[in-house]
Amino acid sequence: MNPQAKLIFSMSLLLGTTVTISSNHWVMAWTGLEINTLAILPLISKSHHPRAIEASTKYFLIQATASTLLLFSSMTNAWFTGQWDITQLNHPMSCMLLTTAISMKLGLVPFHFWFPEVLQGSSLMTSLLLATIMKFPPTVLLLLTSPSLNPTLLSMMAIASAALGGWMGLNQTQIRKILAFSSISHLGWMTIILIYSPKLTLITFYLYSLTTAAIFLALTSTNTLKLTTLMTTWSKTPTLIATLMLILLSLAGLPPLTGFLPKWLIIQELTKQDLTAAATVIALLSLLGLFFYLRLAYCATITISPSSTNYMKHWQTSKSINTLTSILTALSTMLLPLSPTILTIP
Fold it and tell me: Of 250, 268, 266, which Cα lies nearest the Cα of 209?
């Protein structure tokens, strides 16, 4: 892709995200979401592969539908209450439509079907954008409207997302699809605590984005797209793959890594809210995710594919690791001791 075009699309992504998260009017928020959608479409389809074209078409249709529902929700609310303010969503029908629209944009169950396919058809860096930055504006809208939303509905969708994300990721061999189902599962964790502690949802999203970015950058460094390729990477970049194992375990939520922090805090908050059953169920469902994270870690570090003596000379090859990858790796594995400081972030 032309560097100038890539710069324009990247700046448009930044602009759309900024417009949405800083607006208090529904039309401005909708405009920002549309800018984001139009900016990411060329990045998805830039390889001109039929799979990429299919992914961009699916993404466009889903996002257009979700944006239409969001606009209809805000117009319905304005019709009945006279309010265009995002925080003044009071009409029940508007709340239901908004929940549907944001769920479609995020990929929450039962509107998750498009997300793994779109990630599978995109490049690794575009998949990183789709899994992190593109989810930020809808998450902010969900946070702003959380007092008006139905907690029972959100809890049911959250548990369903955690269950389906873990269950569907078990038999995948494509790493992008595994990370897509991982994203759906983590969205379940963010959604279940949304009503009770919006700040905790935001912290969970930040730490999830941090860890996912580290994984995608590590995979980009080794150009790894599926499990069979992952098995051959140890002999090329053993240090990077060893740290990738730690990042995967952090994403799974194992202590004492960073990923344990949000799950620990969410379970603690749910217990405080007398939602012990929900906390127990979602904690048990995280074991499904743990299985395929361990599977990835096993393939990356313990399994070495059959290879000739000449091939093992790759062990001596020194490949430079991106500085950003190193920083994100450190942050995604070692932030747990800073949890008191993280919790003071407004």
Answer: 250
